Amino acid sequence: MNFKHLYYFWATAKAGGVMRAGEQLHTTPQTLSTQIKMLEERLGCALFRKKGRHLELTEEGRTALGYADQIFALSAELEAAIGRAGTAGASLPFRVGIADQVPKAIAYRLIEPALRVPNTRLIGHEGKLQDLLGQLSVHRLDLVIADEPMGKSVSVKAYNHPLGTTAMSFFASAGLRRSLKGSFPKCLDGAPFLSQGASSAMRQRLDLWLAEQGLHPRVVGEFDDAALMKAFGREGQGVFMSPTVLEDETCEQYEVKVLGRTEALVEEFYAISVERRITHPCVVAITESARGRFLA
User: Fold this and answer.
1) Quick one: average pLDDT of 51-58?
2) Which neighbouring-strand residues pair with 223?
3) What is the CB neighbour count within 10 angstroms for residue 214?
4) For residue 271, what are the contacts with CB-CB under 8 A and spacing of at least 6?
5) What's the rounded Cα separation, in Å, for the pair 290 and 269?
6) What contacts 242, CB < 8 A, 6 or more positions away?
7) pLDDT (mean) for 96-123
């Protein structure tokens, strides 16, 4: 059996289709389809069937995927074991993906302990959580740092490892702060507000909290990039929210003031790994250092 063909089948099954798998593997859908067809000819059966505009696994395909999971899990363990057992001075690549909703300062704090592992060479990637999980599933990443756990609906065999939480604080420029009426959180009612994008986990919690408080800020901007949101906040365009654990550096870097904070809003951080029982030394360093550092 040509294991390259098996790998392409496995990646396509994990990604949910040849288009997404092609993006993750940086190859064309035509190449993937050809390789999978050759595997099907070798096995003497179809592994996928079309369902509308999508592909779904046949019964034989599900059987093949189970074996492929085991084969490539063992491959990853072999790679990690050889890397750890290498000669002194040889670098240990650590490929980590950071979901784009995770604040950069917190990402650094979480990942920094891995750099203390001898001979570690950090390879960092940033992107959408769904895309990073796809890369994790085909072992192009060792770990994903995210602000939400991997959902049960995601067809990736991986495990959530909670790292910690932080309460949230609200900030405004000095000029905007003077124009707001009332104490926190009442001062948010009717205030110009800069919010996280609608798809973020924290945005959904924020909307619920505002509704519970009977507050109706005037959303003037929505941002997927937290740094861009804070840059607008620095210019007085609106109130914005950021993790309490970053209060001091947020105030210093963006020249803003704290309006108030609430422990009813909590941002969570997770390490997502293909290992249920963590053995990678860099992942061990991250999880052991992070737990208990951030407290709501």
Assistant:
1) 84
2) 196
3) 9
4) 110, 143, 144, 145, 160, 161, 163, 283, 286, 287, 290
5) 9
6) 103, 168, 169, 171, 226, 230, 250
7) 88
Residue 42's Cα: distance from chain center in Å? 37
Tokens read off for 80:
């990690």
Residue with tokens 């919690």: 205
Q: Give the residue-averaged pLDDT of 150-163.
A: 78
Token pair of 72, please?
């490539």
Query: What type of residue is 68?
Result: A
Judge whether residue 33 has pLDDT over 60: yes
Rounded to a whole number of angstroms, the CA Rg of the chain reads 23
Contact at 8 Å (CB) between 217 and 184?
no
CB 167, CB 261: distance < 8 Å? yes
> How many residues are given for the chain?
296
Pairing of strands 143-146, 92-99: parallel
